[in-house]
Amino acid sequence: MSGSIVFRKDRRRWVVSWSWQGNIYKISRYKGRLMHGNGIRNKRKDDGYRRADKLLAQMQGDVENKCFRIEKYLETGWTDVIPYFESWLETKKKKTPATYKGYKSYFKNWIRPFFESHPVQLHEIQLDTLDKLLESLGLSGKGKHNVMMCFHAFLDYAWRAKRIPEIPPFPKRSDYKIVAPSIKWLPSDRQVKVIEAIPEIHQPIFWFLKYHYRRPGEACALHKCDYDIINKVFIIRRSVSARQVVNHTKTDHEHIIPCHRNMVDLIDHLARQPGQYLFE
Asked: What's the CATH code of the domain at 151?
């Protein structure tokens, strides 16, 4: 089986020389630490040699178990979680503003503090680490789930980039203790009284939401060109994300919905007014 332990006098460290797929690799770290040594005759008393011996045995074991990946042992494979998460965030700037803002918030408030107090290498993260991360989150069940799914997306990226051999199992959904909130609403006649108490100039968007059951962000983002005044239908194709108008819905699907008969005259009037948005 390929692999040997060599002492590099110029750097005073032990390395594992490994032949793999036609290339020779000189691996100088075991669990992220350089294998410094003295090169003394009694190698068993040399800490650096003992680490190199463990490393070689581990590599040979991976070959026997048919799970060997050279990336696991290269220096690029020993990755600190925090800087790699920061670099991953840079790749997410094309996400919706709300998603990107959420990722940054999860990292700043929960993920970074946890790994500063529980330093591990990226490839060392297993279920027990993820359980501790979950326990550290002072959030609701849904909030915890959001943070953990963000971290799952991060590990999926690391796996596809060959920084980790596999994505470790995550806590089960029951561990998040998600409680679905009970939905409370006003009866229709009370809704009407509340909307009528709003200054008349601001009422149209609330009537639209009452009769059309769309997301508030979709109503705010409606352009006049999104209303077909001939066929009396709305094309729902925009929304608001982190206070920014985006040219897609939350589900990335366009929806064509008819204008409710109680609002046709009002919407026709608004569509003919100056301005870009239907509800100015």
From this structure: 1.10.150
